[in-house]
Amino acid sequence: MYVDTHCHLDHHEGLSPTEQVERARAAGVGLMVTVGTDMASSTRAIATANRFDDVRAAVGIHPNDAIEATPRVLEVIEQLAGDPVCVAVGETGLDFYRDHTTPQQQEPSFRAHIEIAKRQDRALVIHCREAWQETLKVLDDQGAPDRVIMHCFSGDLEVTRQCVEAGYFVSFAGNVTFQNATSLREAAAVVPPELLLTETDSPFLTPHPHRGEPNDPSFVPLTLHALAEVQGRASSELRSVVAANAERAFALPVGGVLDPR
Questions:
Q1: pTM given for the model
Q2: Which residue range forms the structural domain that includes residue 210?
Q3: Total domain count for the chain?
Q4: I need a surface site. Which of 68, 77, 122, 188 has the fewest CB within 10 A?
């Protein structure tokens, strides 16, 4: 089965979560992880995941919303992270591309999420834009959880090498299919297959040839096929490898995405 390790089922303006899940199933997608970006959307992610056997949730405060990461809100995030349908904490990290919050606001939130992931034994989902060395430094300094996912990867070859050496999962979204994404495909080509993950980040970053349309999890096969091409592997082979990687990344039962809860 295909896997979409990062989507936002509750953010789509045209399709309900039920419609997205149905479309994904028809496309052969066996796992979707719907991701919260603040307390409200994290709460919705848990509720949505509890409705579908093939959906799990991630909960956290996006770095662009880090001003909301008060002790009380972080307490709620940790409570949500303890739900059985929650497989990850995040998305969290550092974003120096936008200026919605300052680095000084983002870093304490990031460090708090790292600790929640460790206490709850959940994967840590990292959002990083134009802050790669700072992000890697915080992970090294704070001590990364056992399972780290670099969501919607955008790093160069040196960053790729550092992530691979650390054993972090590297997740690619639909932008790897874009015509101008040569450097991203070069990075994807050197990631060991056992560390590769696929995602949509839907409803954003719709892959070619559907750019301009809202994204949804049914499009994740296009990303998988693009990764298979740059890796020089058969899509069927890489699909099996990525599904097994998702099981390891999210500590899911071995034997196929997904075993019934």
A1: 0.96
A2: 2-249
A3: 1
A4: 68
**Residue 136 resides in a domain:** yes
Average pLDDT, the chain: 96
pLDDT in tens, 9-45: 999 999 999 999 999 999 999 999 999 999 999 999 9
Q: At 253, is the pLDDT very low, low, confident or very high (cuts 50, 70, 90)? A: confident
- What CATH number does the domain containing 103 carry? 3.20.20.140
* pLDDT given for residue 98 in this prediction: 86
Write the DSSP string, 206-233.
PPTTSTTSPP-GGGHHHHHHHHHHHHT-
CB-based burial, 189-219: b 16+ in 10 Å, e otherwise: eebeeebbbbbbbbbebbbbeeeeebbbbbb
Q: How far apart are CA 184 and CA 157, in angstroms?
A: 9
pLDDT interval class at 258 (50, 70, 90): low
Burial state string for 34-51 with b = 16 or more CB within 10 A and e = fewer than 16: bbbbbbebbbbbbebbee
Whether the pLDDT of residue 200 is over 70: the answer is yes
H/E stretch holding 7: strand 2-7
Q: Round to whole Å and give the CA distance between 216 and 9.
A: 8
* pLDDT on residue 255: 63
255 found inside a domain: no
Q: Which 3 state secondary structure label does DSSP give 56?
A: strand
d(CA 25, CA 53): 11
Q: Which two tokens stand for residue 39?
A: 């307390």
CA distance 190 to 227: 11
Q: Which phi and psi angles does 3 have, rounded to 5°?
A: -130, 140
